[in-house]
Amino acid sequence: MDLTFTNRFTKELPADSLTTNGSRQVNRACFSRIHPTPTSAPSMIATSIEVATDLGIENDLESDEFLQVMTGNLVTNDMDPYAACYGGHQFGNWAGQLGDGRAIALGEVLTPSGTYQTLQLKGAGPTPYSRGADGFAVLRSSIREFLCSEAMFHLGVPTTRALSLALTGDEVVRDVLYDGNPAPEPGAVVCRVAPSFTRFGSFELFPSRGELDELRQLLDFTIRTDFPHLGEPSPETYVAWYQEVSRLTADLMINWMRVGFVHGVMNTDNLSVLGLTIDYGPYGWVDNYDPGWTPNTTDRTQSRYRFGAQPQVAQWNLAQLGNAILPLLDSTEPLEAVLSDYVSYYQKHFRSMMAAKFGLTTWSPADGSSITDDGGPLDSLIHGLNSVMAMAETDMTIFYRVLADIPTSARLEPDEQLVERVNDAFYVEEQINAKFIMGMSIWIRAYLDAAHETELDDEVRSAAMNQVNPKYVLRNYLAQLAIDKSTEGDHSLIHQLHEVLRRPYEEQPEAEEFAVKRPDWARNRVGCSQLSCSS
Ligand code: AMP
Ligand code: MG
């Protein structure tokens, strides 16, 4: 396997002086050198050909060397494996040192196209940051990470990638429901790939310990490697960097809101400074549109990380990142300016995103107002849809696809007929009562009036909408079905979903079964709508 390891992170940043894996506090260091734990009987379940091609190892996927490297059994001389040290705020509280408790990076490679990518094994065994846990990962959470990272990439949502998913042949004991019933489960490893895995929390730990030299070293390194276009590090560059992280984060939130993704654990250690979706744990996809929904059972009472709160939470996390780098700046003002820019930038781009979902990007309202106006005609449509969707459970993904099919001429249809056109999106028949039909038909007509004002042909509008509104997403129950089968030794559904989710915006008539509403049996099933952090 021909990989060119460059390992800038471990070459240039301060290392832990110890190389043992016992849980401990690690001071004045960005990482600890640590080897993956060998696995007893590894077998490959799935690989991503696109990621392998980017790395220039597309012809190695079947090789034994690939299998051994991706499951922790082979560390070559040019690798420099390590676990990163970071801290973070968990559910709003400072949690101190966290770090890679079960992720071990093999090193950084320079790809044939000239980009840098770090390869990281998740579930590779204990590290100094395992905090009493075992450092391993189970098959179910590894399937979820593999499939979702790849699905997100093909949806056009920034994300860490997944190169491979393998069984280790070893068992891992987990108490899935935290109810005192631990049971053995198959262990697995995912090889994740990203330009870097640096998190907001990577910057928070140093100032909490007064380690300002290390804080500066990490920030300077991050700017030189991940943000070279910002120029040489200086206080001005730090602010420019913070601004860029803020906008990348806003873009990420807009993408999550567009496709209906709920991360589930937006702690500051789970936010990438590159604006990538990172750490797929108890995430979920909204089936019926509900801004108050969270898949994470650990967060059910507070719902801090619910779907609709993600953009605000991201801003709160950015504030923590700002606090972390503050000791390197002369004043708080530029950081405060970035935080308020986050709001205006988010709102502006959220509106553009919604205009695209509606196929209304070229709409000039007849009254002369602009669609980007705060409280303008687009906002009325958005709010109107929110209120009507609150009246009857409506599948978000299906709704936008059927909306795209309605011709503007349908404005003249009677209420019932008009609402019938989006009927596929509704979950509960009894909720489709007279009041709802009136509200929904009023909204659809207002929408079609707007679409009419764009003067676009129906087909043109529909095609544009179908490029931003996916037909196929990794519905929670689909991932669970793949997990159930795979646990019995049949990995075919993983491969099938992986393949379908490569083209999420295209009609795939042979894959229609993966585009339907969540079935009733999945409504309250563990793994389908409720996920714990156990992984
Ligand atoms: P998370 O909320 O899953 O991102 O994890 C929070 C912290 O717990 C991170 O430091 C993880 O590395 C660590 N962690 C999670 N699961 C395990 C595990 N099975 N073994 C060791 N550390 C873990
Ligand atoms: Mg994490």
Notes on the protein architecture:
This protein is 38% helix and 13% strand. By secondary structure, the protein is an alpha+beta fold. It folds into three domains: 4-198, no CATH class; 202-355, no CATH class; 364-448, no CATH class. Strand 7 (103-110) and strand 8 (116-122) form a beta hairpin. Helix 7 runs parallel beside helix 9. The site of magnesium ion (MG) has 3 residues, from loops. The site of magnesium ion has 3 residues, from loops.
Q: Structurally, how many domains make up the residues?
A: 3
Strand content: 5-15%
Q: Give the number of DSSP strands.
A: 13
Low-confidence stretches: none
What binds here, in terms of ligands, is: adenosine monophosphate, magnesium ion
What is the rounded distance between the termini? 30 Å
Encode the helix/strand succession as letters. EHEEHHEEEEEEHEEHHHEEHHHHHHHHH
Q: How does the helix and strand content classify structurally?
A: alpha+beta
The percentage helix is 25-40%
The Rg value, from CA coordinates, equals: 24 Å
Anisotropy-based shape = globular
For the sheet with most strands, the description reads: 7 strands, antiparallel
